[in-house]
Amino acid sequence: MDWGSSLSEEEVKWQEHFARKLEEVEGKNTFTTAFLDPRQFELAEAVLRSRSNIAYTVYGGYPEAERKILQIYPAQHQGSVPSLKAVLVEWSVRKDKPGHRDLLGAVLALGLKRDQVGDIVVIDDFRAAIMVLPAKAEFISSSLDQVGRVPVNCSVEEPGQLNLNQKSGKEIKGTVASLRVDSLLSLGFGLSRARVVRLIKGGLVVVNWRPITSPSLQVKEGDQISLRGRGRVVVDQVEGETRKGRMRLKLKKYN
Questions:
Q1: 170-254 maps to which CATH number?
Q2: pLDDT 10s digits, 168-187
């Protein structure tokens, strides 16, 4: 989507704060950010592109990571991949197994801030990996012994040693009258259009990591639509029109 140069007041303040942090780098220092969500990463890159004397490296623990950290350093220096750890969480029961929201809630309940925790990848029915800043890895590993009602065991691992490629997502095929965001959400999550409109106007929907409030917003192939608490859908392919003029498309849904 083309967002142009329009930024919210909160986004402008975030960029200004980030730009001030970059002043520490000019000439000598190196620093590593906390985890940035995709929208923050986009805002950070916009600032960094205007600073030819600064370079950076990016890492989120695995190639498809959404939340990432940046190591920022003077352009004349040699950079390295930012350091991350994975807390491997294991359990032995299949019933009531923890999901993404359960794992995140359990970690934040230990007193961590959201930007100290990266992606959470459910590897299989009995394991998940939580990307964290190295300074918090041992604390989480030793403190987290239960997620919901499920006892868990934790260990600190190197992300590269784990198979953390995201699952391909659930494929959903269908037709919509148009590529309006409310139509695609209704198809992707099996909700009525009226309910979807209420969710959008309530600020619970994000398109390409930016909050929206307009149900009529047009999306396109490749766009990501997130619904708070339910996951996200990606417009995987727009396959053309049916005889009745509806749009035939394929979505990928991620919980």
A1: 3.10.290.10
A2: 578 899 999 999 999 999 99
